[in-house]
Design brief:
The chain is α+β, with helices and mostly antiparallel strands and about 500 residues long. Helix content is about 45%, strand content about 15%.
């Protein structure tokens, strides 16, 4: 653990709430301008790998080192080649026979090193003043001339190509891609979201623009392994395609905080003690050059504002839309619950009817029965008026039957007699309709009484009531007793 502290600093050694007291200045993993604060050291023998890819190494160098290498390479090449021309003239003795008109030197009019240097520059730059030239009686000069032409072409291609790639890199295109200075957390469409804003200052578009977010946070695994810079992906619409941007005007990027989000347990209070960094990466193809450009920035926990929202920057003018970049970073406060999404879901589940507090004396069956009664009452209220009236009549039948069973047996016997009369003496077609209606009513009342008497047998009554019912059934007519027994079976 001490090695981890020495390597990553004290701000990455604590997992969980930060310690009380003043904290040191936050060490960022990625600066606001997109530069990564990572340095590679103690490479050992691995440094030779940089020379295997020399072109990329030169392109990655800073401009001051590129210019220094450019100047030194040409200066050294010129001096070496000029020295070789002067050496040929010196070995052939051309320098000692300058005023001999009959002598044919290797290079005409080369008397010393400066004249040899000028001859090389004139040959390399194809200037050709005509005063200094190579003769046909110098084979070693011809070979050196061919070598000089090949070497000059290689050096020119390498250095000029390196400078061209260096100048055409799309890194400076990222300077015209803006990110908001702070991120905000507020509700959008009824959901708690983390939001930040991106914008493009140029009229040229970013083709196939895509945005990604990484959460850099230290954590400790259940096995005890400490991960000081653990990277976690933040979903900004990968499944829905919202991460593919049409970056013509400033856009607000939204990360929904749900059960799959790393900020599921983040609340306004815990935000003050958290330590994390959100790295935002915007990639796209530059429309003018066709090269891929990447812009980066980051937000620490101090740059995340809870309960804020971005001010609108778009306005409709006469025939076009206008973007006010003076309000690009501006935010304003909005009502936002200070609780985490996890706490909100727990509070919502506790406030549901099934989880509401009840009296301790009530059993579970009584609670469920009361809820069933509520549901039944609600369903009855939805019925039409006539059906509600029929339902009420059916509910009153057991009570009416109980009152009728407690009366004398003569009424029961008369009811059975009515049934016999109805079966024995059929009604002819010519009889009065009023008598038919009365007989039907008596039949229905008798059937209802018989049904209610059978239902009473199914209820749990005191022993005295059961004995009374048995005694009453003995006094019933035979047909009514048979109907009652069939009902019970």
């Amino acid at each position: 653990m001490s090695a981890v502290r020495r390597k990553f600093g004290d701000e990455y050694q604590v997992v969980g709430p930060a310690r009380s007291g003043a904290r040191r200045e936050r060490q960022r993993f990625v600066d606001k301008n997109g530069r990564c604060n990572v340095q590679h050291g103690n490479l050992g023998g691995e440094s030779s790998r940089y020379l295997s890819d020399l072109f990329t190494t030169l392109v990655d160098l800073k401009w001051r080192w590129n210019l220094l290498i450019f100047l030194l390479t040409y200066t050294v090449a010129w001096l070496v080649m000029a020295s070789m021309w002067w050496g040929i003239a010196y070995l052939r003795g051309d320098l000692h026979q300058v005023h001999d008109d009959t002598y044919s030197p290797c290079v005409a009019n080369v008397y010393n090193f400066p004249s040899a240097f000028l001859f090389f520059i004139e040959t390399e730059a194809t200037i050709g003043y005509g005063h200094r030239y190579i003769t046909e009686r110098c084979p070693e000069g011809i070979v050196l001339f061919l070598f000089q032409s090949l070497l000059g072409s290689i050096v020119d291609a390498f250095l000029i190509g390196c400078m061209f790639i260096k100048m055409s890199q799309p890194k400076k295109r990222a300077e015209t891609l803006m990110f908001s200075r702070a991120a905000v957390i507020s509700q959008r469409d009824g959901k708690l979201c983390l939001m930040f804003r991106v914008g493009n200052l140029r009229n040229s578009h970013m083709v196939s623009a895509q945005i990604r977010c990484k959460l850099i946070k230290s954590r400790q695994t259940p096995e005890g392994e400490f991960l000081p810079l653990d990277q976690c992906e933040l979903d900004v619409g990968f499944g829905t395609g919202a991460d593919q941007l049409f970056l013509v005007s400033p856009l607000t990027i939204c990360h929904e905080i749900n059960s799959k989000s790393p900020f599921f347990c983040l609340s306004q209070r815990s935000l003050r003690s958290e330590q994390f960094e959100i790295v935002v990466i915007l990639e796209g193809i530059v429309e003018t050059t066709g090269m891929t450009c990447q812009a980066r920035t980051s937000y620490t926990e101090d740059e995340v504002l809870w309960g804020h929202r971005f001010l609108p920057v778009m306005s409709l003018e006469d025939g076009f839309f206008r973007v006010d970049y003076s309000q690009f970073h501006a935010t304003f406060e909005v009502p936002t619950p200070p609780y985490s999404v996890k706490e909100q879901e727990e509070n919502l589940s506790l406030s549901s009817p099934l989880n509401s507090p009840v009296d301790n004396n009530k059993t579970r069956r009584e609670q469920v029965s009361s809820l069933d009664c509520i549901d039944i009452a609600g369903e009855k209220n939805k019925l039409p008026f006539k059906l509600q009236k029929i339902s009420l009549r059916k509910e009153d039948l057991p009570r009416r039957a109980l009152r009728m069973s407690s009366s004398n047996t003569e009424k029961t016997c008369s009811t059975g007699d009515l049934l016999k009369i109805q079966e024995v003496s059929p009604i002819s077609d010519g009889e009065d309709s009023d008598d038919r209606i009365q007989l039907k009513a008596l039949k229905k009342n008798a059937e209802a009484l018989t049904q209610c008497t059978g239902d009473l047998e199914l209820q749990k009554n005191p022993p005295s009531m059961c004995a009374l019912e048995m005694k009453l059934e003995d006094n019933f007519p035979a047909k009514l007793q048979k109907m009652s027994s069939d009902r019970l079976s």
